[in-house]
Amino acid sequence: MIIVMKNGSTKDQEEQVNRTLKEWNFQIHVIEGVEKKVIAAVGDKRRVDFGFLESLPGVERVVPILAPYKLVAAEAQPERTKVRVGPVEIGGDRLVVMAGPCAVESEEQLLRAAKGVAEAGATFLRGGAFKPRTSPYAFQGLEDEGLAMLARAREVTGLPVVTEAVDLTQVDRVAKWADIIQIGARNMQNFGLLRAVGRTGKPVLLKRGLSATVQEWLMSAEYIMAEGNPHVILCERGIRTFETATRNTLDLSAVALAKTLTHLPILVDPSHGTGKRALVLPMAKAAIMAGADGLMIEVHPEPERALSDGEQSLSIPEFQRLMEEIAPVAELAGKLLARLG
Length: 341
Hints:
Alpha-Beta Plaits; 15 strands; single chain; TIM Barrel; elongated
């Protein structure tokens, strides 16, 4: 449930509400809105005397949350969450674009990609230092060396870095180097990993699992927020269906649906969602119109030589074209492209 405090409520009144909730063994999360303060309380609602709670000084109303996810639910927060990373805000009226290679292969490759996407207008650099693959014989990433290269690319371009933590042993290292920690589709329900990244306090980009329902996706986000980390960004990246013509089925209905169920910002990854370079641009446009707050695009200076996912990666000129073509679509959807500086 959430307890909405009145405009002008005092600190003492808030503390009285908190003491009451703690006596009922509720876990408390205070959400500071622009106009009002909201207290999200997670626990056994059978203990609650709603009439008493609403009668406390400073309380405007008490709203039960029926969804199994409490902190993530749209009702838990009167305003949509905006995750700020440096000068960039994710979830506002600006469309963010995260772009870069699937995997960090070398410093030369990464810097070429980073400079190219920065010049084209991307707001974040994505790149994998740790690369879990279906085959144990495929390229697995440069690991710590790759993290250092990403940090170097950030120094050169000014782009904040998004990269994945694959297991618990990597969380602290990735948190040290990255601006946003990515949780990949295969780890969406790795609950120990979700708790660990939640405890870092760093922004977390949570990709939807390959066969996950929207509710399961939001419940995974709840694990992160339950650790006291409100900086969660969702990412739809396609799900597994019977269709074999594309790598995955990009579920844009999930984007529009999630917008009604949660206050969290939502990105779309049309690169993994389709697996085909020619489909990235049209699906990026469709994602914007479905309500996406941003895009994640794979870009490689030489896709034909990429060690990972070259068939779905755009070249730098192709990415430049994408940025030019999505700008009017974003404006039609009520957004402008986010820019650094």
